[in-house]
Design brief:
By secondary structure, the chain is of the alpha/beta class. The protein folds into two domains: 42 residues; 188 residues, Alpha/Beta hydrolase fold, catalytic domain (Rossmann fold, 3-Layer(aba) Sandwich). The protein is globular, with a radius of gyration of 20 Å. The two termini are 36 Å apart.
Length: 307
């Protein structure tokens, strides 16, 4: 469903750009007007991202992380425009199923990686990960979980089924890697199990990337149930935290950053007792493709960055 929606948005954007060019030729508005209009139409996220970064610079100060410089924010903005176009304009709408999971012939005794996407995403965000993991011989699976705009708890059954299947296939608990809201869904899955010790033993470790563990200031603009659950101070987040032990949080590695334009202040993406890793000068979507994150996953699997 989400891929179809994003395809409609992309196609409508392209048609609008063509219509604008035709109008410019008809009205003789000049090359600069034509190019400016096309750039604005083909990069519709750029003005929105600029506003997000302005809010981050104004409201995102956090004693738990160094303050991002103007240069870091500018580089993060440019990188996020590129990453957002790749993810929301190409990979998710049109290529979400192109890279298959690599678990069918996985040898027993080799740890698998389960990839969980975040809000307004599908498995297409993980295409570079799937290619690299498969090339390294790492069993892996990337989920597309729906409903896209329901409650975060609605994702628990899909994660449960995937973890159970990967464990049966490999004989070992998988490593879970989750971006943004996906990290909250993984925590909800762990909390939903009746035996806490058994639940923790079902995963090798959990790596979260830009997950609003304590909510985010930006969630106040969301109107869907899962967006509201990510508001700072929301009772759902408080109830989730109350069900977690220190031992469970010690099984998490949390990547966060002072240039995250969606999850801020930066410390909201950390967990007390977790291995919290700061990424400097990287925005929200681009975080998922940082080599530091991928290399850490390989390390946790007992493999070097070169496989």
């Amino acid at each position: 469903m989400l891929a179809r929606l994003q395809r409609v948005i992309v196609i409508a954007t392209l048609l609008a750009a063509v219509a604008w060019l035709a109008w410019c030729l008809h009205a003789d508005l000049g090359a600069w007007a034509a190019l400016a209009g096309v750039a604005l139409l083909l990069l519709p996220q750029a003005p929105v991202l600029a506003l997000e970064f302005a809010l981050l610079a104004w409201l995102g100060r956090d004693a738990a992380a160094p303050r991002a410089s103007a240069g870091q924010l500018l580089r993060a903005f440019v990188g996020e425009v590129r990453a957002s176009w790749q993810v929301f304009g190409w990979r998710q709408p049109f290529l979400a199923e192109r890279e298959p999971d690599a678990v069918g012939d996985a040898p027993a005794g080799r740890t698998a990686v389960l990839l969980v996407h975040g809000y307004f995403c599908n498995r297409g965000i993980w295409l570079p990960w799937l290619r690299r993991l498969r090339a390294l011989g790492v069993p892996c699976r990337a989920l597309t979980i729906e409903p896209a705009f329901g409650h975060i708890d609605d994702w628990v059954p899909a994660i449960e089924a995937a973890v159970a299947a990967l464990t049966r296939q490999t004989g070992r608990p998988p490593l879970l890697v989750a971006h943004s809201m996906g990290g909250l869904a993984v925590r909800a899955w762990l909390a939903a199990q009746s035996d806490a010790d058994r639940a923790d033993a079902r995963v090798l470790r959990v790596v979260t990337i830009g997950t609003p563990h304590h909510g985010t200031w930006m969630a106040r603009f969301g109107h869907t149930p899962n967006a509201r659950q990510m508001q700072r101070g929301h009772r759902w987040l408080a109830a989730l935290a109350a069900r977690e032990s220190a031992a469970r949080r010690a099984r998490f590695t949390c990547f966060y950053g002072h240039a995250d334009n969606i999850v801020f202040p930066a410390s909201t993406a950390t967990l007390p007792g977790a291995d919290n890793r700061h990424l400097a000068g990287v925005a929200h979507v681009a975080m998922a493709f940082r080599p530091e994150v991928f290399d850490e996953v390989l390390r946790l699997l007992g493999r070097g960055p070169d496989g």
